[in-house]
Amino acid sequence: MADILTPALGESVTEATIAKWTKKVGDAVKKDELLVELETDKVSLEVVAPADGVLGAINAGEGDTVVPGTVLGSVTEGGAAAKPAAAPKAEAAKAETKAAAAPAPAAEAAVIDITVPVMGESVAEGSMGKWLKKSGDAVKKDELLVEIETDKVAVEVSAPADGVLTIAADEGSTVTPNQKIGSISGSGAAAAPAAAAPAPAAAPANTGSAQVSGSKNETLSPAVARVVGENNLDPKAIAATGPKGNITKADAIAAIGAAAPAPAAAAAPSAPRAVGPREERVKMTRLRQTIARRLKESQNTAAQLTTFNEVDMTNVMALRAQYKEVFEKRHGVKLGFMSFFTKAVVAALHELPAVNAEIDGTDIIYKNHYDIGVAVGTDKGLVVPVLRDADTLSLAGIEKGIGALGKAARDGALTMDQMQGGTFTITNGGTYGSLMSTPILNAPQSGILGMHNIVQRPMAINGEVKIRPMMYLALSYDHRIVDGKEAVTFLVRIKELLEDPQRALLDL
Questions:
Q1: Is 479 assigned a catalytic role?
Q2: Which residue, of 193, 195, 290, 323, has the fewest CB within 10 Å?
Q3: Secondary structure, 3-state, 439-456
Q4: Which of 151, 479, 500, 507 is catalytic?
Q5: Which pTM does this prediction carry?
Q6: Is position 452 annotated as part of the catalytic site?
Q7: pLDDT tens, position by position, 288-312
């Protein structure tokens, strides 16, 4: 017997909720076949079968909360499911009768399924975008049909062959890897699969009755029982949406608000407002929803404050202009400003470790590594890939690393590992013309540096007014861990290193 265990859930993630089992007890399973999907605050995870056999037990039901190492169930190795073993002769006879009776399988052999591709590490589901073709349309092999959006990237799905398209998953629906979302028929019989659709219409009636009976069932999972007990809920009054009429944790939580009479009046504002004649309603992408949620969580959690300074870019610009051609010939990459800022940030973080730390409960975690997040704007939204061990990189290494991460971000090819674990973030609004901003922290980090547009301004230099290329710098920081003195000192240190680049070479 092989146990099915909850895997490691990722950095700073301590628990997950069981979203869905794909098999029932007694079903035959293959090694590495998807058995259960877990949802955390950050990502969805897939748990696969540890061996061939039969799903012998399910220890945690849908909606239950689990932690890494929890035994979710077990697989009886070498077992066989009861149903497939029953009456093999009868089944074989039925198969032969069907094969002889109708030539339909020959036509079906020409139908090729369109399935959801693997969408990236730790990405367990996505949302269907808009189909570029309709059911019944003729398509060519490798022609783009639809985009699937996930929290991190967009995945393109193309036609696997020439033929006629039949769509099986509508725009906006949630899909998982290897799920069938349509098919290509070489025979042109695109409407054939739709004919079977009316048959499942009877299923909702059974589902409804199961929910009624399930709501009277007092056998609850531990997570649901805890929510019910803590809030004095009546299990019989909770509408069940889980399989076989079971009450899920989400059902119990939803019932908390429904049980109170006062919030009933608050349901009205949740209805979407009417769209005017010159307005358009568009559903937010998963990536945009994730960005919105994380930024709001950051504002609600940290005591955010922003302090400003300005830097004279004369010397850095002169150094860059003097060596940029030689630099590009030598290293094969252009010399930009980001490498100078990254070097200056790492030096300042060495001096002021609180800005490179994070709060974990009542503890402070000081990080002795310097993984710098670099905010990148894409067509899909803002992402922050991480440049690892920036303190060990040369200017050329930093420019190459940032260039590679930016390209991967724009191509939608970033992995989860490339977007997690940063210790500090730099965002450059100056590329879009921003003069000043107050960046929002990239939680759980304690600091983010905002670069801005370089503008020629009159400055007082040794009693004389001179025109200098000036940039405003903004440091947003978590005031719970970083004091004002440290924040100002951090910015002053960066200013000194940029206005006199030789200081970095001499480690001053």
A1: yes
A2: 195
A3: CCCCCCCCEEEEECCCEE
A4: 479
A5: 0.52
A6: no
A7: 788 888 888 888 888 999 999 999 9
